[in-house]
Design a protein that fits this description.
Length: about 200
């Protein structure tokens, strides 16, 4: 915005599926393990994985957390909006896989709430590595199940077509591709330009 002061930006933070045309969204930033919007134009930004974290106090109260079966039944914090029981496919030592289902006690698409709830000792969170790094360095969170990772999550910019893109949208896409750091997951639809453009 400092470089392009005439551009107007609206950010909608949500993990639900967004219809770019119906909801007049110019660009979505989506993180997912599989592609399913082949009719949309995509630009890959990078990839990451998720790691399990909890507060040191939580770990003191549950000292044996080395295998996915050890966290079954413990309080879980979910970044998904859907209140259905989430499950994750994990890869562990020697490429062994395990599918683990959770019954969250907290659902929110706002990652900062998940981080703070985990730091407060409320439960276990599955966070992107880039988002978990700082609170781990600060000692507010510790990694649990260190030998296990989620499936790789790919981050894409998604838009309907390259043809007819408003100049502000095109500049925005190029800027994100050059500067975006993989910090959180989920869908991040963004309106740029005049706020009414439909592509």
């Amino acid at each position: 915005m400092a470089d392009y002061p005439l551009v107007r930006v609206q950010i909608i933070a949500t993990n639900r599926a967004v219809d770019l045309i119906e909801e007049k969204v110019d660009v979505a930033i989506r993180a997912r393990t599989r592609l399913n919007d082949e009719t949309l134009t995509m630009r890959r930004l990078g990839s990451s994985s998720f790691v399990f974290v909890a507060s040191p106090d939580f770990v003191d109260r549950h000292p044996v957390l080395v295998d996915p079966s050890d966290i079954t039944g413990l309080p879980f914090l979910s970044f998904q909006e859907d209140t259905a029981r989430p499950s994750w496919t994990l890869t562990g030592p020697d490429q062994v896989t395990a599918v683990v289902a959770f019954d969250p006690i907290l659902w929110t698409s706002e990652f900062s709430i998940v981080v703070e709830a985990a730091c407060a000792g409320t439960g276990i969170a599955l966070l992107p590595t880039a988002l978990a790094d700082r609170p781990i360095r600060e000692g507010r969170l510790v990694r649990i199940l260190p030998g296990w990772r989620s499936e790789e999550v790919n981050l894409h910019l998604v838009f309907t077509t390259r043809r007819g893109l408003a100049p502000a949208v095109r500049v925005f896409i190029d800027y994100l591709a050059d500067h975006f750091v993989f910090r959180d997951e989920g869908q991040r639809p963004i309106n740029v330009g005049g706020g009414k453009s439909v592509i």
